[in-house]
Amino acid sequence: MQPLAYARASDVSSAVRHVAGARGAEFIAGGTDMLQLLQERVRTPAELIDINRLPLSGIDVGPEGLRIGALARMADVADDRRVRERCPVIAEALLASASAQVRNMASIGGNLLQRTRCLYFRDVVTPCNKREPGSGCSARDGKNRLNAILGGSEDCIATYPGDLAVALVAVDAIVHIQGVRGDRTVPIDELHRLPGETPHIETVLEPGDLVTAVSIPDSAHARRSHYLKVRDRASFEFALASAAVALDLDGRTIRDARVAVGGVATKPWRLVEVEHLLRGRPVSADVFRMAAERAADGAQPQAHNAFKATLLTRTVARALTTVGSGA
Ligand SMILES: Cc1cc2nc3c(=O)[nH]c(=O)nc-3n(C[C@H](O)[C@H](O)[C@H](O)COP(=O)(O)OP(=O)(O)OC[C@H]3O[C@@H](n4cnc5c(N)ncnc54)[C@H](O)[C@@H]3O)c2cc1C
Ligand code: SF4
Asked: Would you say the pTM of this structure is higher than 0.85?
């Protein structure tokens, strides 16, 4: 038995100061990822600070666009009419995530910060650099069908598991953070880090940093956006490959594009080259296929996941065709 203290946070500043200053203190929101990791002894915090009573669950539309509080529940955000109209990709990514029960509990902030589903990360008797730095990577020569083909390093090839963060990359979302030194913002694309030689450091957050909200600027491409997720079964399953696409059209010409992918990379992965190939071209299945052919550029498949490269190009092409239809 390991003792575990629990306390409820009553205001943001003292919660941040407490977690920054107390060794082994962690935030808990919906608990849907944290509790699994505690049960499996993957995480062993000394103290959990429950943030659920903090006033961070609003969904608002203001001058900066849409602002979603970090404690808004996945189900409520997916169901919000303003989210569905302004950023369909967000609602679709959330509805393709987990199950109705999990979505009712799980928060937006917790979703962004969920940990990988790499089999070995969650199995404490196997070496894993992410769980225990320097112990080795069991996935490299093990079961790596679900692991990443993009963004991996010698030390880690774990896939970033979430759907929402991929959708947020396609709509240029900004993450709002409160830390001990005050507020700051980080573009969603910069929140998660590549594993490199330090796969246990997954984000740019510092101890005590609390995600307070995400904001999404109003844009034409966010309004014409779509999320497609391909997985082993139709629900309650993580992505083998997913694509979040957003197009700004001028008639039948693509003025601007965003393409981000999930299930294949160590962090939410933006396909800048694919976007470049789309800009200025007409809306057509041929153009979408041509651009999608570049989706897996630079891929480094492992023994059991080479199929992901083909799956990825097809997923991106199909998502683009869907979002371009009716133009
Ligand atoms: C069976 C199952 C299937 C799933 N399938 C999917 C799926 O298909 N797609 C998908 O995207 N997700 C999936 N998930 C993951 C699920 O969406 C996450 O567990 C959930 O979103 C986490 O939110 P939470 O509020 O419960 O976080 P918690 O478990 O409370 O916290 C998760 C982490 O975030 C930290 N944290 C939480 N809030 C904040 C904050 N505001 N600031 C700083 N740190 C914070 C915590 O300290 C912890 O480290 C699945 C989960 C389960 C159990
Ligand atoms: S891929 Fe990363 S998370 Fe998986 S075993 Fe290797 S080091 Fe651990």
From this structure: yes
